Amino acid sequence: MPRPTRLSIAALTEIVTGIFLRAGLNDIQARSVAATIVAGERDNCKSHGIYRIAGCLRTIEAGKVDPAAEPELQHDGGPLIRVNAGGGFSTAAFSVGAPVLAEQAAAQGIAALVINDCTHFSALWPEIETLTEAGVAALAMCPSYAAVAPSGGTAPLLGTNPFAFGWPRPGRHPYVFDFATSIVARGEIELHRQDGRTLPEGWAVDAEGRPTTDPHAALAGAMLPFGGHKGSAISTMIELLAGAMIGDLTSPEALGALGSTALLPAHGELIIAMSPARFAAGRPGDPFARAERLLDAIAGQGARLPSERRFAARAAAMRDGIALSAEEMAMLEELRAG
User: Which GO molecular function entries does the Swiss-Prot or TrEMBL record give (predicted)?
Assistant: First the structure.
């Protein structure tokens, strides 16, 4: 078996950015998308790494993303910040709104960033970590397109609807979790299909609503929510908060507007940032020190905190480079050649 090729984070970022610039994206779109994709590879989360490039390019070629979009910041000085993505990628809009969001959360205790009219493809942890680095706790969520049956249902209605949270830990990696409210991310089923692997039982139903382990049948049918009715309720909450409440598309509406699950969905995103220092003001104890006691107690029982595997992979990538298989390198070369 050929040995993997190792690229530095900077080298892979240059390659991926170049692919998107050649595809017609402007600088802010290309660099923000590339940074998120490379973060997926850096942290060994393959379902959010360079595998995502092809889907981004299909969506650009189909005219569903405005390659020249310049995110428009709308802020009246209060705790609500809005960025109109203008039909571009959510990553570019977040890069414009995040500094204002962190500043307002620190000043006012809590602030929210609404991103409208964006195309979304990415994990949420890079956004969350941007905010924890600024010293604020944060929540992020967004719909998707209808691909998940509600608990007790048989047909796609909800999105995979990712939900992420982060807590800053001064001098240490933040506490971060990021998960789909479906039992797995749709990208995991795509990877099973590409690799010819069957799915674990309980992941999906086919187009007739019958349980299936065939990834082809699952993609034609519906995924299932994690935790049964609990995951279904959280997913519905995200449809309401990050869809209806912010004046953007819910997952069924996004699928209706797109007409296909082969392209990336367009909708909105909601990010809420909070200042632990402001919330705890006047109360005894340092909120960060108290949080450390809790997190250390969890780890002291042998439990793994979420994202520890990602952070370990990140350290290895920063030290040794990102490992890409021969097939992955061939894909990158093909994409670079256009």
Answer: oxidoreductase activity
CATH 3.30.1370.60 fits 75-183+224-279, yes or no: yes
Is position 75 annotated as part of the catalytic site?
Answer: no
Domain at 1-68+318-338: CATH architecture: Orthogonal Bundle (1.10)
Tokens coding 174: 């933040």
- Distance between CA atoms of residues 237 and 230, nearest Å: 11
218 token code pair: 């699952």
Whole-angstrom distance, CA of residue 96 vs CA of residue 101: 10
| DSSP label at residue 290 | H
- Choose, from 41, 127, 129, 188, the residue flagged as catalytic: 188
Q: Decide if 9 contacts 318 (C-beta within 8 A).
A: yes
315: which 2 tokens?
């350290």
Question: 78, 36, 14, 39: which is closest to 313 by C-alpha?
Answer: 39
Lowest mean pLDDT among 93-97, 194-198, 303-307: 194-198
Task: Give the ranges where 163-202 is alpha helix by DSSP (H).
Answer: 186-195
pTM score, whole prediction:
0.93
Catalytic residue status for 48: yes
Predicted confidence at residue 47, as pLDDT, reads 85
Condensed to tens digits (0 to 9), the pLDDT of residues 31-88 reads 999 999 999 999 999 889 999 999 999 999 999 999 999 999 999 999 999 999 999 9
Coil, strand, or helix at residue 270?
Answer: strand
Mean pLDDT taken over the chain = 95
SS3 207: coil
- Residue 208 among the catalytic residues: no
Q: How far is the C-alpha of 44 from the C-alpha of 28, rounded, in Å?
A: 25
Instruction: Give me the residue spans of the domains in the chain.
Output: 1-68+318-338, 75-183+224-279
Compute, in degrees rounded to 10, the torsion defined by CA atoms 210, 214, 219, 222.
30
Considering the candidates 32, 41, 48, 239, report the single residue annotated as catalytic.
48
